[in-house]
Amino acid sequence: MKLQDTTEFASSTGHGHGGRRKNSGRKTQYQEKTVVMRVPESKVSEIKAWLKPKPADDRSQKIELHPIQIQTRLDIPYPLESVAAGFPSPAQDYTEDVIDLNQYLVHNPSSTFVLRVNSLSMKNAGIDIDDQILIDRSLKPEHGDIVLALINNEFTVKRLMKEKQKNGELKIWLKAENPEYPDIYLRSEEQLTIWGVVTCILKKLR
């Protein structure tokens, strides 16, 4: 009896002891036919990283911006001399100056807002989910600034990139500081507005 006949016999008698069963085998993550190809060993990791699904763009139409309200002054004493990241000098048991966090962190109270971050697209810039960032609307955005950008009524926090092309034109795009997230290159129909410049990351260590 041929193998084909054996498979048909097992199927007809209801015994699944041989042949290919429906929905068996390795499941593919791609909804199309796949092919086998040979690649240099040194490129395997790079190709796997490229094939890894990337998060969707993190633009959002709804964000919660909170205006700054400076109500109190808090003076924190600090030494005039700088201290290495270790134990301070035993002889330095006094301070001669103070710092007010309101003045240090907020230069333009009327144009400064607080935003809580809900994306990991700027992780490599030190911005994590639930971090709070200060955004100053009065500052002129420069190349390399982290900004709150508005693209067709959708907000996103990215690094502003300005590149002068060979033809003299200025190319503007938004860089994600996390390789798992896509950079944003504006299409011809999209309008970009820089809502404000990020000046500070408020992050608690404990």
TrEMBL record:
<feature type="region of interest" description="Disordered">
    <location>
        <begin position="1"/>
        <end position="32"/>
    </location>
</feature>
<feature type="domain" description="Peptidase S24/S26A/S26B/S26C">
    <location>
        <begin position="81"/>
        <end position="198"/>
    </location>
</feature>
<dbReference type="InterPro" id="IPR015927">
    <property type="entry name" value="Peptidase_S24_S26A/B/C"/>
</dbReference>
<protein>
    <submittedName>
        <fullName>DNA polymerase V</fullName>
    </submittedName>
</protein>
<dbReference type="InterPro" id="IPR039418">
    <property type="entry name" value="LexA-like"/>
</dbReference>
<feature type="compositionally biased region" description="Polar residues">
    <location>
        <begin position="1"/>
        <end position="14"/>
    </location>
</feature>
<dbReference type="Pfam" id="PF00717">
    <property type="entry name" value="Peptidase_S24"/>
</dbReference>
<dbReference type="InterPro" id="IPR036286">
    <property type="entry name" value="LexA/Signal_pep-like_sf"/>
</dbReference>
<dbReference type="InterPro" id="IPR050077">
    <property type="entry name" value="LexA_repressor"/>
</dbReference>
